[in-house]
């Protein structure tokens, strides 16, 4: 393992071929992430992220032992020093909805199913 980090740019020809993204995978990712990939820009962003992650296939990890954790073996605790506090009432007033002394997060709104989206997107550019 090198003592200092090294960086070599990865060229496009070193990467595996682009991975096509199937419609059912896009549907699943949209449901899991609550992100809309229905537009050309959204799908292009997803494909670009996959292509970026594909660089990991090129990295030479020979001689590198897998890590059990990203944390160091020994965790050193530090002293916590409270510099300011007791502002719970002020902070709770910033929320639109609270119960007892807790924020209430808005519900997740599920994205429409593929069939519903197809009907909605008939006249779109995607």
Outline the structure in words.
Allows the formation of correctly charged Gln-tRNA(Gln) through the transamidation of misacylated Glu-tRNA(Gln) in the mitochondria. The reaction takes place in the presence of glutamine and ATP through an activated gamma-phospho-Glu-tRNA(Gln). It is found in: Mitochondrion. It catalyses: L-glutamyl-tRNA(Gln) + L-glutamine + ATP + H2O = L-glutaminyl-tRNA(Gln) + L-glutamate + ADP + phosphate + H(+). Its main location: mitochondrion. It is an enzyme of class 6 (ligase). With 126 residues, the protein is mostly helical. The chain has a domain at 1-63. The chain has four helices and two strands; from the N terminus they run αααββα. The longest helix is centred in the middle third of the chain and has 14 residues, at 40-53. It is flat. The chain starts with 22 loop residues before the first helix and ends in a 6-residue tail after the last helix. The model has no long low-confidence stretch (mean pLDDT 81).
């Amino acid at each position: 393992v090198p003592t200092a980090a090294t960086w070599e740019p990865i060229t496009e020809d070193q990467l595996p071929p682009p991975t096509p993204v199937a419609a059912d995978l896009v549907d699943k990712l949209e449901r899991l992430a609550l992100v809309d990939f229905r537009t050309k820009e959204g799908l292009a962003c997803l494909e670009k992220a996959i292509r970026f992650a594909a660089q990991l296939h090129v990295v030479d990890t020979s001689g590198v032992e897998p890590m059990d954790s990203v944390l160091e073996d020994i965790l050193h605790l530090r002293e916590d020093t409270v510099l300011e506090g007791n502002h719970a009432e002020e902070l709770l007033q910033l929320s639109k909805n609270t119960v007892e002394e807790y924020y209430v997060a808005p519900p997740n709104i599920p994205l429409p199913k593929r069939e519903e989206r197809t009907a909605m997107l008939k006249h779109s550019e995607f």
